């Protein structure tokens, strides 16, 4: 995927992580995420526990940002609408954004939004072949909660710190075209 609107991301390439070296020096400023990127991202990708995607300028080091996707099953009580809870009585299958982060020096330039849109586009493509409820993530703080709300994610009922936020697949499909 190549961005066309922001000069800072015009030559950006998003691809699967290839080696642990891709994220060895990654630093977004959040210790837990930085440690996960450096110590677990490639291992989880290699073992099929997550799919990790990295962003680079012209596919050259360093990795500027990344996100990790997996599937998750959440209790149906986490869904807002009764119809949705009834439709998924055994739990709601979700594509889960395990982590999404941007190098500290590249934050606030639209790269995080580009990574999020890339993840949502992948979910849209999966929805053509596999039924699932939507895309979910856990918000880091009030700032990220506000950001994800801006993109249509809703907070699951009765959530506290690091709330579960869900964007239903029909909203994603509206964004990218009907499934």
Describe the SSE topology.
Layout: E1 12-16, H1 31-39, H2 41-46, E2 51-57, E3 60-74, H3 82-87, E4 92-102, H4 111-127, E5 134-138, H5 142-150, E6 154-155, E7 164-168, H6 169-176
Helix pairs in contact: 4-6
Report on this structure.
With 179 residues, this protein is of the alpha+beta class. Helices cover 31% and strands 28% of the residues. It is built from six helices and seven strands; from the N terminus they run βααββαβαβαββα. Strands 1-2-3-4-5-7-6 form a seven-stranded mixed β-sheet. It is globular, with a radius of gyration of 16 Å.
User: Roughly how many Å apart are the termini?
Assistant: 20 Å
Mean pLDDT: 90
Q: Specify the number of helices.
A: 6
Classification by helices and strands? alpha+beta
Characteristics of this structure?
single chain, 179 residues, alpha+beta, 7-stranded mixed β-sheet, 6 helices, 28% strand, globular, disordered N terminus
Task: Characterize this entry briefly.
The chain contains six helices and seven strands.
């Amino acid at each position: 995927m190549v961005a066309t609107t922001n000069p800072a991301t015009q030559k950006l390439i998003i691809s699967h992580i290839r080696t642990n070296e891709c994220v060895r020096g990654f630093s977004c400023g959040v210790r837990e995420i930085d440690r996960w990127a450096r110590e677990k991202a490639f291992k989880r990708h290699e073992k099929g526990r997550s799919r990790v995607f990295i962003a680079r300028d012209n596919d050259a080091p360093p990795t500027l940002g990344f996100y990790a996707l997996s599937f998750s099953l959440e209790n149906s009580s986490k869904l807002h609408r009764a119809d949705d809870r009834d439709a998924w009585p055994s739990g709601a299958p979700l594509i889960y954004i395990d982590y999404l982060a941007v190098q500290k020096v590249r934050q606030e330039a639209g790269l995080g939004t580009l990574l999020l849109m890339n993840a949502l586009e992948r979910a849209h493509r999966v929805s053509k072949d596999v039924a699932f409820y939507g895309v979910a993530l856990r918000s880091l703080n009030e700032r990220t909660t506000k950001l994800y709300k801006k993109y249509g994610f809703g907070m699951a009922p009765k959530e506290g710190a690091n709330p579960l936020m869900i964007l239903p697949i029909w909203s994603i499909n509206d964004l990218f075209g009907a499934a």
